[in-house]
Amino acid sequence: MSAVPLEDSAADVVGKALRGKAQLPEGLARSAGVSLDRLRKILDGEPDSEVLRAIAPCLDLDADALESLAAGVAPPDISVPGLEMFTTAFGDIHVNSFLVWEAASGQALLFDTGADADPMLDFLTKHQLKTVGIFLTHSHGDHVFELDRLLEKTGAEAYLGDLEPELDGTTRFAAGRMWEFGHALRVESRLTCGHAAGGVTYVVAGLPRLVAVAGDAIFASSMGGGIVSYADALRTTRQEILTLPPETVIAPGHGPLTTVGREMAGNPFFARRHAATA
Question: Which of 52, 103, 170, 252 has the fewest Cβ atoms nearer than 10 Å?
């Protein structure tokens, strides 16, 4: 898999935490004892370790992890046989979709659609794979943009959590449902809401490593914004993803692959919070 840059900078993380906690920069500057001018420079992307470490506890962020993110520490390249990631442009952002396949049975599972399904469809054709399920983490436009094409081209059933808005062509299910495919592929659905009303993480077993397709619940060194509920986004990710074995590969909706262990140790949103409850 080709290298994919981190989705968020330290400034992005601080901005998401500010919005999630409904704080204004002026109040954060006062609480942290830093000047508003220096804080605004952080929000504009200028690194300042002293300010980052001062504001981190006020936002319930891990200071060491936030400082490491600002220094450019990124996860190592990760490759899992049977897992392919496709990154496509959606306006001024990039979004991931994933394909899981089993060579013995020739069956494939698709996770989210990305903004352009051609690379995924080409891969299916090249490897003579049959799609037996399309799994959507949530219904935001960048994750379902090519659903109609994938339904037409593959004839597979598409699944969407029942707490998400209605979406034509999908079969609804309650989180907790499990599926079995081929000889050894198993998919477990877990509710990871907060970014979306009914966001779902799919935990895939049957590959050499456990894989959690997380949508926008968590990114390498960050998370999706808590659009619906910041508190729920933190809570469900911590309970449903970070309790998986540390070697579990996280396949996020944006940015590079990462692991549970790495995010437990180095994600500014979760590192200290998880340690406190472990």
Answer: 103
